[in-house]
């Protein structure tokens, strides 16, 4: 494949991906119109992006208060004790996803570089439940965790790049 056509294909994929990120609810026809592509081309690009795991899935952005949940972030700092392979596997594939159902809903988990080594974002009904979740999660890994900080979100300004539609009502908080 010529370098130019490969670049064009990557740019086309990026355009479709950008429109999906902005409004994943749009139909293929609507995305094709916005991109000035055919419906078939958009469909083919989306299928390719899904197969290559560039698109992980689709989600709705909702107001957690409507579900009587609060949003929390946990910043985790590792200790100097290295994780062995068994513990890494447990953290990555088992322990994090096997939290007590109904206790919390995990939103994101990131390994990071900076003032913390890991960031969890999750939903819980209240701060007591959020603290209980963290204590249950980190009790097994206490020798590997130096410290963690729990932060409660007051309100989101943006989620997944989209501006909160109720932002005007929330401006009094700032």
Describe this structure in words.
The chain starts with a helix and ends with a helix. The strands form two sheets. A four-stranded antiparallel sheet has the order 2-3-1-4, covered by helices on one side. The chain has a two-stranded antiparallel sheet with strand order 5-6. The protein has two domains: 49 residues, Orthogonal Bundle (Arc Repressor Mutant, subunit A); 96 residues, 2-Layer Sandwich (Alpha-Beta Plaits). The model has no long low-confidence stretch (mean pLDDT 85). The longest helix is centred in the N-terminal third of the chain and has 20 residues. Helix 1 packs across helix 2. Helix content is 40%, strand content 20%. It is built from six helices and six strands, in the order αααβαββαβββα. The protein is an alpha+beta fold and 174 residues long. The protein is globular.
Shape: globular
Radius of gyration: 20 Å
The biggest beta sheet is recorded as: 4 strands, antiparallel
Number of strands: 6
Write the layout of secondary structure elements.
Layout: H1 3-22, H2 28-35, H3 39-51, E1 70-78, H4 85-95, E2 105-111, E3 118-124, H5 127-139, E4 145-152, E5 158-159, E6 162-163, H6 167-170
Helix pairs in contact: 1-2, 1-3, 2-3
How would you describe this structure in keywords?
40% helix, 4-stranded antiparallel β-sheet, 2 domains, Arc Repressor Mutant, subunit A, single chain, 20% strand, alpha+beta, 174 residues, Alpha-Beta Plaits
């Amino acid at each position: 494949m010529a370098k130019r056509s490969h670049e064009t294909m990557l740019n086309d994929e990026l355009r479709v991906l950008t429109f999906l990120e902005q409004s994943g609810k749009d139909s293929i026809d609507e995305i094709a119109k916005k991109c000035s592509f055919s419906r078939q081309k958009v469909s083919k690009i989306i299928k390719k992006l899904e197969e290559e795991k560039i698109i992980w899935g689709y989600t709705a952005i909702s107001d957690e208060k409507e579900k009587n949940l609060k949003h929390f972030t946990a910043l985790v700092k590792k200790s100097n004790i290295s994780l062995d392979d068994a513990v890494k596997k447990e953290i990555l594939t088992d322990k994090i996803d096997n939290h007590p159902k109904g206790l919390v809903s995990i939103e994101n988990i990131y390994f990071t570089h900076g003032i913390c080594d890991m960031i969890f974002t999750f939903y819980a009904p209240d701060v007591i439940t959020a603290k209980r979740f963290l204590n249950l999660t980190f009790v097994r890994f206490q020798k590997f965790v130096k410290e963690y900080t729990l932060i409660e979100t007051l309100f989101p300004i943006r989620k997944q790049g989209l501006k909160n539609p109720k932002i005007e009502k929330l401006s009094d908080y700032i």
